[in-house]
Amino acid sequence: MNIRRLRLWAGGIMVAQGVVHVALSAAAARGMVPIWLDGGLWGTNTPGADGGEMVQAAAYFWSGPASFAVPWLGLGALVLWLGRNSYPVPAFIGWVIGVWGATCAAIAGPTTPFATALIPAALLVVAASRESRNPAAAEPRQPLTTP
């Protein structure tokens, strides 16, 4: 698989993960939206003084719209854009994603979706490694333009 395809796969996986997480959390939390809009989260985002559980509406909020799904979707879109325009993604991005995914999976359990972050992380590290070993294999870069 060439360098460009590795980047495109990594970005596509990240975008798909973000979209699925946002869709599933929106479906699960749809009954909580009126509570959120009525200000029901104010003062409920941390456990009470007695160390009790977080209010259910707050838990849905933090696992849904306030989760890392939207930034993950944006990062995936950036990786896709960079890949389509033949710009490199630094290896440290892959390493950070990999360490984050592995740490969260170790804490939350290996069967959680955090372990799937290792796939795009590995693809990005491999792409960067191949490009640094053989710069001639990199595709010519498109000019940076914004629409």
Question: Nutshell version of this structure?
Answer:
The chain is mostly helical and 147 residues long. It has helices at 3-29, 33-37, 56-63, 69-84, 91-108, 118-133.
Question: What would you note in describing this structure?
Answer:
It is built from six helices and no strands. It has 147 residues and is mostly helical. It has one domain. Helix 1 packs antiparallel against helix 4, helix 1 runs antiparallel to helix 6 and helix 5 packs antiparallel against helix 6. The protein is elongated and about 60 Å long.
Record keyword descriptors for this entry.
mainly alpha
Number of strands: 0
Number of helices, counting only DSSP H or I runs of 4 residues or more: 6
The major sheet is characterized as:
none
Give the overall shape, derived from the CA principal axes: elongated
Percent of residues in helices: 55-70%
List the helices and strands and how they pair.
Elements: H1 3-29, H2 33-37, H3 56-63, H4 69-84, H5 91-108, H6 118-133
Helix pairs in contact: 1-4, 1-6, 5-6
